[in-house]
Design brief:
alpha+beta, 4-stranded antiparallel sheet, 2 helices, about 15% helix, about 20% strand
């Protein structure tokens, strides 16, 4: 059965967002999408980039890859604030099975 097509996610549409990448070894990195645009171009599909990610410590694929609009992920500063939006980058991490 063919895989369902996923929508394109051009990096240019998410310039103010960050990728939160967690590895099974415990390593975590917050990567600004604007940096990916500088390296790979504004039309690069985030899903394509996501499928090529590897941990800097152990070289394994990430356990989770999420997108956030706030790298601090809390939104709790002086006087409160709006909570961060966090959503998975679908089609990047293979399901365990």
């Amino acid at each position: 059965m063919p895989k369902p097509e996923r929508p394109l996610a051009p990096a240019r549409d998410h310039l103010g967002w960050w990728l939160i990448i967690h590895c099974r070894c415990g390593y975590r990195v917050d990567l600004p999408i604007r940096l990916l645009v500088e390296r790979h171009g504004a039309n690069t599909d985030l899903h394509l980039i996501g499928t090529r990610l590897r941990c800097q410590r152990c070289s394994q694929r990430p356990m989770t890859v999420n997108m956030t609009d706030r790298p601090d992920r809390t939104g709790q500063g002086y006087g409160g604030g709006t909570p961060a939006t966090i959503k998975p980058l679908p089609g990047v991490v293979e399901e365990a099975g």
